[in-house]
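Technical note accompanying the year-one report. For the benefit of new consortium partners, we illustrate the data format agreed upon in the data management plan: each record pairs a sequence with a structure-token string. No post-processing was applied to the example shown here.
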Amino acid sequence: AGIDYPTDKEDNFDGIDFGKVLFENKALKKRTLYWHFKNPYTKSYSYAIREGHWKFLWSQGQSHLFNLHLDRKESTDLISNYPKKAEQLKKSYQKWVKEIEKNNIN
């Protein structure tokens, strides 16, 4: 963008380089996606994790699990059918948060 950026500061970012995907037409490696956000309607904190076809969502104190391959609209909560999968995804998110905090990632 043409701005000067201080080179004496080390920044850590949680992300990947999309250069090879954009400029060399290479495939993007499959990976687990994590995100958290403040719900603009309820003002409450929520988080989600996407791993393969599975999406775990925690919002307003409740956990939800969806199979996005079978249910793109997230209309059928499968948490009672797959409690171990939900717990595994929740633990994966918690581990990710600790890693972010430990490494002071922006």
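Partners are asked to follow this layout when depositing records. The CA atoms of residues 12 and 103 lie 7 Å apart.
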